[in-house]
């Protein structure tokens, strides 16, 4: 009897506090023996969810004589505009935004009355409480000139897709299509869409190179996704922060690609000088942009003037000098070499002319041309004969063919190498990411690999302060700070703040991309050395004082020490010649788990995702106290 009095008191208090309007909208129901939420919902022609919304404790246990709050008949009757609330039964394929359009209200207003929708999607057959229509607009149709409450207009940018925009605003594809009935299969840049008034993430671009995108199915939870993708709830939320409140039907998730990459433990360094078996004559075509005809006709310039005016010529000559020395080293190892040199004149039409005019069927390999479009032209013309073409200096995304070898690791390879190192060595470290808006993709890649990483965002004008770091740094652990920015102001402030941290904070600085910002005059090399600044690189730096055979031979032959292009010319050419001599076919000498190392460069070719082969071998370097670079890996 006492419990009954308590429940009645609560009900009276509810009715008084809600006022006369509330008395018209709700009534009470005393639970009888044998009644369930289902039977009560059926009695009043409402959904079970409506009862749960108004009576949260009813989810746990329904006690006899307990009092439930029930919408009055005026609330649950739909079709009269005089009521403050309506009841809506969800039909098949209906979405929240579609229902909001139907009643000319905002999605947020519906969620406020149906709180379970904050953490899940709609269910067919359930009944929703719908608030009265907004006074801000007089029609129920969504259009660009008059949007729904809680929405805004959005202009589609380059590289954005329906998946990306839906993900940006935390809605499903179906909901985006509900808001924009005339939406086609593809989006054009500049198209104006209706979207929710708040974004849940910054970027709407889709990065299919590094990630896959998945639309959550009905009733899917984190357990099912772990079984399907092998990802923990923590790993999923790291890439999709808006999923922390739960998964819902149609939610767009960004997930790591399921790739079977070769582990570092499986990679071994091999010495091809010890594997020379095929010593028959090797014919290599060396295609470089000397532009000899132009230089011969320029009678007013001497050699030094030509070199000053044409940096491409300087690079070509340096590369050529290294390649010649590589041919000599190969001959010293018993490999017969014919090096045919062609002047491409920096022209793809000249490249086509050279290949058409000369007999290339007996060529074992082509090194060059230097320029990307010229390399692509050469490989396209020679792919029918399967003659391998080695691109010496381009690290950009290329139009690959089955016979094209990209010898310079791309930025993507450098990033992947650094992230793998960080992931494998992050145990016991406090990982901190400092990233600006232009490096969102890189930040997400790091968070995918290390979900426990903490983040620091730059302040308004692009800088950080000591308090930003102390808020996330640890005194009891080594702090590994990953700085992702090309802004010299942010790089400078981060280096200054980190190097000035008290001694009880052990700091080390990393980046996936050592760009020009680190060469800015405000960025101190001494402070970088103090932070053991670590970064990925396509090559290491040799000590000019080391008496290695290549340096001695080059100095004796040319009278000077080689620069990086001369060393590159030697390393690329020598590797190609040794691969030709180690197998009957150079394609048989491409072993993804084997790495070759030379003066400053190393090579490990893997089959590209499209066609051709990419060099996946990169160094990880670290500043030392002498302002030189140590090889970490």
Brief descriptors of the model:
single chain, 633 residues, alpha/beta, 7-stranded mixed beta sheet, 4-stranded parallel beta sheet, 22 helices, 35% helix, disordered N terminus, signal, LysM_dom_sf, LysM peptidoglycan-binding domain-containing protein
What do these coordinates show?
- The chain is of the alpha/beta class and 633 residues long.
- The chain is built from 22 helices and 25 strands.
- A hairpin with a 4-residue loop joins β20 (594-597) and β21.
- The longest helix has 24 residues, at 2-25.
- Helix content is 35%, strand content 18%.
Question: Main sheet: which strands, in order across?
Answer: 11-10-12-13-14-23-22
Mean pLDDT: 83
The percent range for strand residues is 15-25%
Structural class comes to: alpha/beta
Main sheet specs: 7 strands, mixed
Spans where pLDDT lies below 50 across 5 or more residues: 1-24, 74-83, 136-145
Number of helices: 22
Share of helical residues: 25-40%
Protein name: LysM peptidoglycan-binding domain-containing protein
Domain LysM: 27-70, 86-130, 152-195
Keywords: Signal
Signal peptide: 1-22
